[in-house]
Amino acid sequence: MKGPVLERSMTVDPFESIDVRIEVLIGTLLILNTLPLGFGFAGPWEDAGFTRGIGGLIGCYLFYRAWFATTFGFHGMIPALHLWSDPSRSTSQLTLIGVATLGCGWVIGNPLAPLFAEPTGLIITLFGCLMLLVAGYAWLVFDGGLQDVDEEE
Question: Nearest 5 degrees, angle CA 72-CA 30-CA 48?
């Protein structure tokens, strides 16, 4: 099995740190552009707010990509459980961050709703629910009912 991706991956030093500053900078700009003072073009859907929202989602993706690269040491999308170094600590942290994200989604969707686009609170709430789902699954696998039990015979 040969190809440009495999050859490139074999020449990269696995212990070299990944520079994610550009992703964080662009992600920050795209997310800040979703605020009411942001700018966007109408596009074929004839709504500049929709364009800004898509830019905000791309900014969230770039933040996630930067977090993944700094956490696991390579660019990827799915944080497979075998990559976790301290599952109990990570599960509790992810649970707390998920609850905080749900709270942030509620605040942005209710009291601060006039300052943001209509679906902003809903999207942030979705992110929080996904974090809690991953934390719950990780807890079940590492500490709960889905963990591997060594049978002694």
Answer: 145
> For residues 11 and 14, what is the distance between their CA atoms, to the nearest angstrom?
9
3-state secondary structure 57-71: HHHHHHHHHHHHHHH
Burial class, 99, CB count within 10 angstroms (exposed 0-12 / middle 13-18 / buried 19+): middle
The structure tokens 């550009």 sit at 22
The string of pLDDT tens digits covering residues 12-64 is 565 567 889 999 999 999 988 887 777 777 778 888 778 888 888 899 999 98
| Pairwise CA distance, residues 42 & 50, whole Å | 8
